């Protein structure tokens, strides 16, 4: 990819945007630990990180809005950076949903089947990989990583389709209870929306070359 012409101010903002992605990764990691270790305190820590991300989003949008008023500023680039921040914000909203569902699971002692736990933990880890890759892409503008992210999204869609069929089978056989089913489906759906928002953020950034 050809280098994007960034002045120092925009470069600093771009680094903050990448840092925002790292915070989302941290939030998800805490949520995964809370899910696996059945600890509400970890969910509470993740909630604090979430608030920090939302605060960062407000600051970054304000900064970028101010930059857009400068006469010599690349307004299309600024708009694409604002779009990235917006997608990161929406991804965080989806993780807030994940946190809420994991909190219910832990607080109420809702049990998942071993298969369900393995599937959810796998999606958590794959989403963590997507988040790390997205942060790296924002800083390096690496085409190979973009291709990797696109392929990962397609692969995860196939995996989730297979998981959904297996989940339905468990539900029919009574292995999975309705309460567990609702939590499971909400978590899976929100994690996939997180991955989608990462893909959209990268596509928007790379569309401005």
Automatic annotation (TrEMBL):
InterPro entries noted in UniProt: PhoU-like_sf
Taxonomic superkingdom: Bacteria
Protein name: PhoU domain-containing protein
Species, as recorded: Candidatus Brocadia sapporoensis
């Amino acid at each position: 990819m050809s280098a994007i012409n960034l002045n120092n101010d925009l470069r600093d903002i771009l680094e903050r945007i990448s840092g925002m992605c790292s915070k989302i990764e941290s939030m998800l990691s805490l949520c995964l630990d809370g899910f696996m270790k059945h600890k509400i305190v970890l969910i509470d820590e993740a909630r604090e990180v979430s608030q920090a991300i939302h605060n960062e989003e407000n600051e970054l949008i304000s900064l970028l809005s101010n930059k857009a008023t400068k006469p010599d500023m690349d307004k299309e680039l600024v708009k694409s950076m604002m779009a990235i921040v917006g997608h990161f914000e929406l991804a965080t909203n989806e993780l807030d949903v994940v946190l809420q569902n994991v909190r219910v699971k832990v607080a109420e002692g809702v049990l998942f089947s071993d298969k369900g736990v393995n599937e959810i933990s796998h999606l958590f880890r794959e989403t963590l990989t997507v988040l790390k890759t997205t942060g790296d892409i924002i800083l390096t503008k690496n085409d190979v990583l973009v291709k990797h992210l696109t392929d990962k999204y397609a692969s995860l869609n196939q995996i989730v389709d297979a998981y959904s069929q297996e989940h339905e089978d468990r539900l029919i056989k009574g292995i999975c209870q309705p309460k567990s089913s609702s939590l499971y489906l909400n978590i899976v759906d929100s994690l996939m929306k997180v991955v989608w928002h990462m893909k959209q953020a990268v596509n928007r950034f790379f569309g401005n070359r």
